[in-house]
Amino acid sequence: MANNPIKIKVENIYKVFGSDPAAVMESVKAGISKSELLEKNGHVIGVRDVSLDIPAGKTFVIMGLSGSGKSTLIRHFNRLIDPTAGRILVDGENVMDMSEAELRDFRRHKISMVFQRFALLPHKTVLENVVYGLLISGMTKAEAIEKGMQQIDLVGLSGFEHRYPNQLSGGMQQRVGLARALATDAEILLMDEAFSALDPLIRNDMQDQLKELQSRLQKTIVFITHDLDEALRIGDNIAILKDGELRQVGTASDILLNPADDYIERFVRDVNRARIVTVGFVAEAAASLPLSDVSESRCVSLLKDNSAIIVTKDGQAKKIINRDTLARNGFQGLMSNGTELQDLICINQDATLEESFSLLGSSNGIAVVTDNKTHPVGVITSEAVLNAMAGK
Ligand SMILES: Nc1ncnc2c1ncn2[C@@H]1O[C@H](COP(=O)(O)OP(=O)(O)OP(=O)(O)O)[C@@H](O)[C@H]1O
Ligand SMILES: [Mg+2]
Question: What is the b/e burial string over 180-217, where b = at least 16 CB atoms within 10 angstroms of the residue's CB?
Fold first, then answer.
């Protein structure tokens, strides 16, 4: 994955609620439990020592059960609340150092927040609903309408711009809400349980819409949910909170295959890994060797340290050699079947295990994994896929 610059940097944030948070910080830092602090001092730990690097242009999901501190955490990002300790930097700027005027401008143009349900104004048309916020933020009417129409088109509602909300289905109304949220010029979108109130079919549709829109817009989206499936579906990165503490941050594949602790492991136990984990994540590194350099001794020596060799010609994978095929066919046997191995199959690193499985079935259980430019990056075997699916 490309290394995007950090958009929001969260540094050791603590938020304690109560009459005198500063007075209890010492015990909080010393590790007093949330329940004990509440019992002894009547203070509530909202967030405890959370640090995060949120990359630009990605969808970053914050997940956790009710009360785990998700809303408290993201309200720091646009300074709806101030931390008891720690810092938040947005594009390198400390939000605590902003003046009132800077903060107003920041909330209006840089970071916008979407709450539980996209409520539409019933007496305004679709278009009026979408441009409403743009006009408030000072855009001219012509600009706002142009921008609004683009967003309506993006969510597939062209032709409905002059309808009223009650003339649309529930799902269409939600899409208008999404269009409105995405129409702002804000580079950062904070979405707090935006889809939670929706019925499951509409919710799935909205998740797809968001993914589709995000692939084009590449905003920095911080999306809160308490739903694991939703997190795994839409998050490029996922942070999991429990009792105000950060338990794990990673891609969906990371979290499913390498849960950081027992809590996470129990959480993800029943997820269908085959649909989520990507091939790139379980690929084994392989040595790459141009066809012109191939010799038996070279192969034997490379296979001491690598599980496989990808023989390339003009940068493209042509053949896989591993200990197994070398032992079975011998070097001469392997090289005699031409430069192309007939059943060589390449699978994109972003494919899911499920998608790879039938392909592997028709390629002797081994295939080349390629990046988006079809360059080989490793190999994948049926065995590795099965192990990963079993949650090994
Ligand atoms: N203003 C407040 N005063 C006192 N305690 C608070 C306040 N806001 C949040 N809390 C407490 O902080 C903790 C984290 O709450 P928060 O609302 O951030 O959780 P959440 O993960 O967003 O939960 P939900 O999924 O229910 O929205 C909870 O124990 C909550 O009771
Ligand atoms: Mg919340």
Answer: bbbbbebbbbbbbbbbeebeeebbbbbbebbeebbeee
Is 168 among the domain residues? no
The rounded distance, in Å, linking the Cα atoms of 124 and 54 is 36
What angle (nearest 5°) sits at the alpha carbon of residue 202, between those of residues 198 and 207?
95
The residues that bridge with 11 in the sheet, in sequence order, are 87
Q: How would you class 337 by CB atoms within 10 Å of its CB: exposed for 0-12, middle for 13-18, buried for 19 or more? A: exposed
Cα 66 to ligand 1 centre (Å): 8
52 SS3 class: strand
Domain that holds residue 290: 280-389
Give the Å distance between the CA of 52 and the centre of ligand 1. 19
Minimum mean pLDDT range among 49-63, 250-264, 360-374? 360-374
Nearest CA, atom 27, ligand 1: 66
Considering the entire predicted model, what is its pTM? 0.85
pLDDT in tens, 286-330: 999 998 999 999 999 999 998 899 988 888 888 888 888 888 888
Residue 23 in domain: no
Ligand 1, CB cutoff 6 Å, lining residues: 17, 44, 46, 64, 66-72, 226
Give which of 294, 311, 291 is closest to 379, Cα–Cα. Answer: 311
Which tens digits make up the pLDDT trace of 192-237?
888 887 788 878 888 988 998 898 889 999 999 999 999 999 999 9
Query: Residue 155 and residue 62: Cα distance in Å, rounded?
Result: 24
Domain count, the chain: 1
CATH number at residue 318: 3.10.580.10
Residue 345 clears pLDDT 80, i.e. is over it: yes
Q: Are 155 and 179 in contact (CB under 8 A)?
A: yes
Atom of ligand 1 lying closest to residue 226 CA: 25
Ligand 1 pocket mutation pick from 24, 44, 66, 80 by most atoms within 8 angstroms of CB = 44
What are 341's two structure tokens? 């191995």
